[in-house]
Amino acid sequence: MNPILMSLIFAVTLGTFAVVAKKRFALLATGRAVDRFDRIPDRIKSVITYAFYQKKMGYYEPVGTAHKFIFIGFVVLLLRSIILWGRAFSPTFNAFIFGPDTLLGQGYELIKDVVATLVVLGVSVFVYYRTVKPQKRMTLSTEGLVILGIIATMMLSDMLYDGAGMELSWRFRSAGPEGIIGKLIAPFGTAHEGFTFGAPAGSLFRMLVRGTTDDTLACLAQAGFWTHATLVLVFLNILPFSKHFHILTAVPNVFFRDLEPMGRLRPLAENAEKLMELVGAVSELEDPTKAPVGVARIEHFSWKSILDFYTCTECGRCSDNCPAHTTGKVLSPKHLMLALRDHLYTRQDDLIGAPTAVPAEGIPADANPIAVGLGSILIAPDMLHPDVLWGCTTCRACEEQCPVMISYVDKIVDLRRNLVMVRGEFPHTLAKPFEAMEVNGNPWNLSRSDRGAWSDGLNIKMMAENPKAEVLFWVGCAASYDDRAKKIARSTAKLLQTAGIDFAILGQEESCTGDPARRAGNEFLFATLAESNAATLNGYKEQGGIRTIITACPHCFNTLKNEYPDFGAKFEVVHHADYLLGLVAQKKLTPVNAVKGKVAYHDSCYLGRYNDIYESPRKILGAIPGLELVEAEASKNKGLCCGAGGGQMWMEEQNTNRVNVKRTLQLLNTGATTIATACPFCMTMLTDGLKSQDKQDEIKQLDIAELLDQSCAVSLPAKAAE
Ligand code: SF4
Ligand code: SF4
After folding, report:
1. Cβ partners under 8 Å of residue 560, min gap 6
2. What is the SS3 assignment for 172?
3. Do 565 and 611 have their domain in common?
4. Given CB 3.0 to 4.6 Å as the disulfide criterion, which of 51, 55, 615, 680 pairs with 254?
5. What predicted TM-score, i.e. pTM, was given to this entire model?
6. Residue 713 has pLDDT above 80, yes or no
7. Which residue, by CA, sits nearest to atom 6 of ligand 1?
């Protein structure tokens, strides 16, 4: 071919790419440090599952399958591009082992042709969904179509090169010509007369061009060769400026994902006292050399968050599944991600060139020197309205759907932490629950001394009376104080008694776990509550009690299980769905009474998406005679949030299109006569949803423990769920 031309193309395209890539790396390096080089085998497994196998893309959706075709195409065709680049320098170059007369070479030729054809098919599917049947969730820019055009052209030009080369090779099979045609046909090996199954796509192109002259064929082969060889390099240079940057960043983004339990938010400091020092009298807003509390400005994000920004494919799956977005709130996770990314890019020159200062004492271990002299551009409210952050229910539907494993909840909570703890800016309705949790240990501000009143008449011992009790029933605020939720606590306790479990409760020694405070950004309040509860729990552990904690609240469950270990409380924590199912399996509980009716189970986000408990509640319901379990349109990992999480329970909803009503309607559409829950907060929200539809008398709302209690209760006649 032409080594000088190829060398020039390499120099220009790779040189330009190196300059851009260096800048992107420099920007990434300005992010706060986080350690993501641990647990390498788990990270490799993650890459295989989510990046290569693309588990989240869905196998039955055309777009998901099309994306997989294109991804496989890039992997397989990379070798082909290397071979073609090599042929510019040596016409017979076949990467040493992929020559046309070797088995490897013939096998690769076949695979390459099949895969390239699938890529063209995949591109067609994407073009269809961008032009004929556009999907609202996707960013439908011209850029996307141009990129698809480039991908298809790369594939077709390679086929053209093969087709024209094969035909020339056949024509000149006996007399090896000198010059340009000789060089062109050199890589094609043994000539065939017609269609070759070993090179189906190339052969098809050969059929198309075989009526042309030798000179035209030579031109076509040259055109195919140079188009493919150059376009790949041009494409590489477009990537960093487009959403297709994910072609380069998705694999590292999956590799470096957070492998901690999904329900664990990272503490800002090792304890409340240190956190207090960190918050301090002077905030980083006044003194930029001070370490930030949470995130106030773009430069406070970690390098992994910056990698997340680079990697967003703009597919919109997150927003499509976000309860806030789909009910018309201002929060759209996709647009939040893009706004943060665009803001980062507009500030990249400032950030890369900024001098740094070592922050004051008391900083978290993962803090970097802070860039100073940048001026203070706050993310909220300077670049986005705080309502965007306050609309989130922390349901994780976005993260569950994101094909490239981008995280949202940590970012949103970090932004809330700064608003709450540094600036004191939060929805006014949160003020009372914050104060109530601090003073009375529950967000309803009810008396601490009434915390155990729900158990009156059940003969349940307090831990103070039975300090060696190995099983603690952690009741939580909702089931302790809310009249409806108290019945869940009573049913759970009765079932434990029926099964002969020696358990106790903490009564007024129990305080809110702090989950609503933490998710609403009040990390200091959370840390204070966590330390106090951890001291109580560890006190009994030292006396030989508490080995297992059971709770009927998924929020308490998640916090005790995944977050309290950071505060020194390490226990076996079990949600009542798992525990009760275990008792049924051990025949310590036997559901015998029929509970007739259609029951739709609503998945709690903190049980399902956060802790992967989908089956236990369903198995409990399935064990109850007479009960017919039906599934809502969105269930399990796609289930819609009830709208209470992330502190929303105590916030005013931003518009009249309510999340709980949307979810209630989905559940009602199943034709169920009973809605079953495994979370007292979901129960409250769905009960309100039923009231909004005037269905509260017609449709029952019961916890799985209440249904099981009905079925296990002695001497109950068969009855409808009530
Ligand atoms: S966590 Fe839930 S509410 Fe928050 S952005 Fe994600 S999908 Fe939306
Ligand atoms: S964050 Fe993930 S799900 Fe949302 S648009 Fe970006 S790639 Fe798609």
Report:
1. 474, 513, 549, 551, 569, 571, 573
2. coil
3. no
4. 51
5. 0.92
6. no
7. 398
What the block records as the tokens of 699 is 């449709």
Residue nearest to atom 3 of ligand 1 (CA): 392
Confidence of residue 177 (pLDDT cuts 50, 70, 90): low
Q: What is the pLDDT of residues 537-547, one digit of tens each?
A: 999 999 999 99
Residues 535 and 442 in one domain: yes
**pLDDT by residue (tens digit) across 91-105?**
888 888 888 888 999
Q: How far is the CA of 460 from the centre of ligand 1 (A)?
A: 39
Name 597's Cβ contacts closer than 8 Å, sequence gap at least 6: 626, 627, 628, 672, 673, 674, 700, 720, 721
Highest mean pLDDT among 18-27, 184-193, 344-353: 18-27
242 lies in the same domain as 131:
yes
Give the pLDDT mean for 644-650.
95
Q: What is the pLDDT of residue 61?
A: 78
* Last-in-domain residue among 565, 583, 601: 583
Q: Tell me the two tokens of residue 568.
A: 């020194």
Closest residue to atom 2 of ligand 1, CA basis: 395
> Could you tell me if 573 and 670 lie in one domain?
no
Distance of CA 396 from the midpoint of ligand 1 (Å): 5
Ligand 1 atom closest to the CA of 318, numbered from 1: 7
Inter-residue contact 602 to 677 (CB < 8 Å)? yes
Distance 601 CA to ligand 2 centre (A): 28
Q: Identify which of 670, 651, 590 has the alpha carbon closest to the alpha carbon of residue 623.
A: 590
Q: Which atom from ligand 2 is nearest to the alpha carbon of 314?
A: 5
Starting from the CA of residue 654, give the closest ligand: 1
Rounded average pLDDT over 432-457: 96
Asked if residue 705 and residue 594 are part of one domain, the reply reads: yes
The residues lining ligand 1, judged by C-beta closer than 6 Å to any ligand atom, are 322-324, 331, 333, 392-398, 408-409
Residue 514 and residue 523: Cα distance in Å, rounded? Answer: 9
Ligand whose nearest atom lies closest to the CA of 609: 1
Among 56, 246, 305, 317, say which to mutate for ligand 2: greatest number of ligand atoms within 8 Å of CB.
317
pLDDT tens digits for range 260-304: 999 999 999 888 888 888 887 767 777 777 778 899 999 899 999
Task: Please state the rounded mean pLDDT for residues 37-48.
Answer: 97
- Ligand whose nearest atom lies closest to the CA of 338: 2
Q: Show which of 399, 419, 439 is a domain's final residue.
A: 419
